[in-house]
Amino acid sequence: MDDARRKTPTWARYALLILGTAAMLFAVGGRWDIPLAAWISPVLLLRFARTGRAWSAAPWILLANLAAAVFWIDESAMGFNAVIIAGAAALSLLQTLPFLLDRLLAGRLRPWMSVLTFPAAVAGSEFLITLLSPFGTAYGSRAVTQYGDLPLLQVTSIIGSYGIGFLIAWAASAVNRFWERPSRRSARSAVVYVAVLSTVLLCGGARLAFSPGGGATVRIAGISPSREATEALQAALQRIPGGRRDVAAAPPSAVRPAMTAVEDDLLATTRREAEAGARIVVWPEEGVKTLEADEPAAIAKARQEARTSGVYLEIGLGVYSTAAPAYGRDETVFIGPDGRVLWTYQKAHPIPGSETFTPGDGRVPVVDTPYGRIANVICYDADFPDLMRVRADIMLVPAHDWREYGRAHTQKASLRAIEGGYALVRQDAEGLSAAFDDKGRVLAAGDYFTTDRQTMVADVPTRGVTTVYDLVGDAFAWLCLLAVAALTILGIVRPYRHVPGDRLRVRRPGDLSAAKRG
């Protein structure tokens, strides 16, 4: 490590930092992601960290992570506020820790242990983000940058999305070992990695190629209100200054006609799609915006439509209330073909810094139907893998995004389908709507901003599969955290050092002869 620091010119080190940071900007789970950038960035930033002193390199890595977080917020049009900025800083600090640990332990562990320190720490940090922060996998997950690489993503059905982060970081660690100390041993380490990655890709490809097809399907229609009705309601709401409380307190005549027009549009489209063969119809998150006093009537009309059309109907409701502190609710109601309400679900993870709703209890509802076991969450809930571990055949995800983030957010949700072994239907009010099978393959898609007809129709498999991840949960992520703890203790209590010839000797106080003999 000291040799590498002496041999690397200062300008070259900071070139690594700049290039690594630039690559990371395009690997943040946003609309401008480049999958390869997620593999290149940690190689360069790890090299920068290893060629400098640990505590002098760490602030620069922190700034690189913070720059990426700010870039993601800006490109996704999230808007900056105190909660989001504080969250970005906290996540950046957590993402810096794997680089710091690697730098501190790389020269104190056996080579094979050293190579695995960084990937274990990366996977562990990604897991901690979903465990401790309110942001889930919305930011900080390397798996979401690999959307479309289905053979690679199949490994998430075994070890979860954290496994992708592990593989990407392992590549960086293996490359850096050879870069730092070319030898047969370091080359062997790279060969082992290539063999593991090849196995993952081959097995993932085989899973896709030999997965059973031709089973029973059900036609599901995801519908959003027409653009005209949506824009008329938005205009009515914008005429009322303030937030949800002010809308709820305004004269009903100021908003009720526009709200009713949206609801009637959705009911009419539900009837049309039922006549065309849909057996399940999904409205988007807050598809119907309603005053609290009008909510029972809105649900009653939907129940009547489900009964008349003979469909399972899920409606998204945005309820406006004068009751503090939430001033409303974000909920879904699932209605059977007989008009019975099968569940009412409250959003479990309101967006931090944006939504004031009181979170639901986090119990994902599931009901048996002739079309398999159907479950439901709302939009941002799907960014939390633990919540999404549900024994279901079809997961309904009504959502409401915006132009800059809708496509990326829907693509992220496809990971939950692979992990959970179920089909996933995400109907987005203003974004990309899509249906995925249990391998993450796209069954249908529709972009609100590129079509005049806000309907997506898909023939969705009615039987999912039980995945290893469904059975063991986050065991791999916990093992990574335990490995990091064990390696840290080992590096402190019983350090090793590299000697000429790439051999290892135990560093013992006063034992100089061993080093000379090496």
Overview of the structural elements:
Helices cover 50% and strands 16% of the residues. The protein is globular and about 75 Å long. With 518 residues, it is of the alpha/beta class. The two termini are 17 Å apart. The chain has helices spanning 2-7, 10-25, 35-50, 54-75, 82-105, 111-132, 150-153, 156-159, 162-180, 184-210, 227-238, 244-249, 256-275, 295-309, 406-420, 468-472, 475-493, 513-517; strands at 217-223, 280-282, 288-291, 312-320, 328-335, 341-346, 366-369, 372-376, 394-399, 423-428, 432-436, 442-447, 455-461, 496-499, 503-506. Strands 1, 2, 3, 4, 5, 6 and 13 form a 7-stranded mixed beta sheet that branches. Strands 7-8-9-10-11-12 form a 6-stranded mixed beta sheet, covered by helices on one side. Strands 14-15 form a two-stranded antiparallel sheet. α9 runs antiparallel to α10 and α13 packs parallel to α14 (295-309). The chain is built from 18 helices and 15 strands. Mean pLDDT is 93; it is low at 500-518.
